[in-house]
Design goal:
2 domains; five-stranded parallel beta sheet; 12 strands; elongated; WH-like_DNA-bd_sf; Helix-turn-helix domain-containing protein; transcription
Length: about 250
């Protein structure tokens, strides 16, 4: 194997989806050499041969515990490799308290939107060359409640290890409630801020109900998106919040 092969900036895609490979291989950033592999076994074989990938994109249609274990071991051993996992379905795994998705996986994308994936990788790979890889931090997460946070760049919710997608309006609604945290907001205020005056209050209530289910916790307080009749809705950020004693 030539020395040139060792010195390249390798972007490794692990996927059997030819469309995904086609999308990623057209990246404008010419500093990357892209290779598509069918499984992690071949990735490990490449590493044994002396190749050091700087960026790994792993397409896992259904993310299970066995995939999580691989990610944990990979990140322990190859700390300077960017790891992006593309998942087709929402993830519901019980994580050990010592782990969280932002510690194990640098980024996670839900859904097989090729344009979204390639656009994100385009920006992220460009950023790698703008600043040293070792100095890059984990992606910004907005804390909602201990154990619950939202990734604003990829718009998914991490609820104690469950990775849950947020459609556009649900994300806007959550961000509005975060901004108004500590204050009760009425359905009319939500409509004007997230929708418009012509939208139906019932549509907003249904969206609030869906978001509330995604924020649901398995231990008290179970609901952190509170509703008080005649007052409105609010989001609490800690278990000792005085808002929790407000009567519904």
């Amino acid at each position: 194997m030539s020395a040139e092969k060792y010195n390249k900036n390798w972007l490794i895609l692990i996927s059997k989806d030819s469309m995904l490979y086609s999308s990623i291989s057209k990246l404008e950033e010419t500093k990357w050499s892209t290779v598509c592999l069918p499984n992690t076994r071949e990735l490990l074989q490449l590493v044994e041969e002396g190749i050091s990938p700087r960026y790994v994109v792993w397409h896992v249609p259904i993310f299970r515990e066995i995939h999580l274990k691989f990610c944990i071991q990979w990140k322990k051993k190859y700390t300077n490799t960017r790891l992006l996992v593309v998942i087709d379905k929402e993830v519901h795994l019980q994580l050990n308290k010592d782990y969280s998705f932002d510690k194990i996986i640098d980024f996670c994308i839900l859904g097989n939107n090729y344009e979204k994936i390639s656009d994100f990788i385009q920006k992220d790979t460009r950023d790698i060359f703008l600043s040293p890889l070792k100095k890059q931090s984990s992606p910004l997460y907005i804390p909602i409640y201990p154990g619950i946070k939202v990734n604003p760049s990829l718009r998914y919710l991490d609820n104690n290890g469950s990775i849950i997608s947020l459609p556009a309006k649900e994300y806007e609604l959550l961000m509005y409630l975060v901004k108004q945290r500590g204050n009760f907001v009425t359905i009319e205020q939500i409509l004007l801020s997230v929708w418009d005056e012509f939208s139906s209050p019932e549509n907003a209530r249904q969206m609030i109900y869906k978001l509330r289910k995604k924020l649901y916790r398995n231990t008290p307080p179970y609901n952190i998106l509170l509703y008080v009749r005649g007052t409105g809705y609010t989001l609490v950020d800690r278990k000792d919040s005085p808002l929790l004693s407000t009567k519904a």
